[in-house]
Design a protein that fits this description.
324 residues, alpha+beta, ten-stranded antiparallel beta sheet
Length: 324
């Protein structure tokens, strides 16, 4: 993670003044929020790539993933399985893509770091994530990943005090009890890595944040070691035409200028569903963080019993008259 010095903070504060997402978060600009807590906010994309396209972002202004502090990172990505469940339920879908773009060449269009959450199903027409190609990995890249990613993860465990039990594996770049990280067998580009894990919906908050921590360190390794211009972290989970197995896996892609890799596709033309989606998704995410302003429901059992007795007396009087 990038250390935010006073000089960097001053630059971020200047960026923040003209950031549309910061204005939405502050309420200065209207946005269709579907979830909000102390650290993050989720809102509908007004130019959706598919029906129910949600943006998840930290409330503080950070330009790319490495700037996001560990506490916010863990909370944001730890909450993803619950957000995915809520969005899938609202949109009546079973699959999802979660897309992270670091850098303009990687498809990042705003200076505020955010994550795209795309509900998916078979036949939805948004089939752009079949990342199998005919490229290859050079030997330098292979050694870079094999040598550096396990060290980066061990350092991470030392800092956090959490350890998922690193497993020695001859065919994996890195493996522990939660994830397996390999160089893609049919890469779309040199350095393309795939991280596999269990069903995303079933991951705990700690496991989900760990999964994306591994993804972020892989992205850092390809960015720094390969001199990439940017990176993508793209999760697939649940069945869709471009994920016919339905398994959960993350593609980590080094990005270079004009490499032709697609991460979102064109916005859909019909946006008439946005208001309906806003209402439906918001109703599903409400339970994740009920508003602290809502008055607690207090039930007085003695008063309820008294009311029941009065109702019973009134009914009996009607039935039997004064002969009670």
């Amino acid at each position: 993670m990038v250390e935010i010095t006073p000089e960097i903070q001053a630059q971020l504060d200047e960026q923040k003044k003209n950031c549309i997402f910061c204005k939405i978060i502050s309420g200065e600009q209207e946005g269709k929020k579907v979830y909000e807590d102390e650290e993050i906010v989720a809102l509908l994309d007004i130019n959706p790539a598919c029906k129910g396209h949600v943006l998840v972002l930290p409330k503080e202004h950070y330009p790319i993933m490495p700037y996001v502090p560990p506490q916010t990172f863990a909370h944001m990505f730890g909450l993803m399985p619950k957000l995915v469940k809520a969005v899938n339920k609202a949109t009546i879908t079973t699959g999802v893509n979660i897309v992270v773009a670091n850098g303009g060449v990687a498809g990042q269009k705003a200076p505020h770091f955010l994550v795209h959450l795309l509900p998916r199903e078979c036949g939805d027409g948004h089939d752009i994530y079949d990342y199998s190609g005919n490229s290859s990995h050079d030997e330098k890249t292979k050694q870079l990943m094999i040598n550096n990613i396990p060290i980066m993860m061990q350092n991470h465990f030392s800092r956090t005090g959490v350890n998922y039990g690193v497993v020695q594996s001859s065919d994996a770049v890195y493996q522990d009890s939660i994830v397996t990280c390999k160089l893609a067998e049919n890469p779309v580009v040199n350095g393309h890595m795939i991280i596999e894990t269990d069903a995303f919906h079933e991951l705990s908050e700690e496991q989900a944040s760990h999964l994306f921590y591994v993804g972020s360190y892989c992205a850092t390794a390809i960015f720094e070691g390969m001199g990439a211009h940017g990176s993508n972290i793209i999760l697939q989970s649940g069945k869709s035409n471009d994920n016919d197995t339905g398994k959960t896996r993350i593609h980590v892609l080094p990005r270079f200028q004009d490499d032709g890799i697609e991460i979102l596709g064109n916005p859909i033309s019909d946006k008439s569903h946005i208001d309906e989606m806003h209402s439906m998704i918001k109703s599903e995410t409400f339970i994740l963080n009920p508003s602290p302003e809502r008055e607690p429901l207090i039930i007085n059992l003695d008063e309820m019993k008294k009311e029941d007795d009065e109702i019973t007396k009134a009914i009996n009087k009607i039935k039997y008259g004064n002969n009670i």
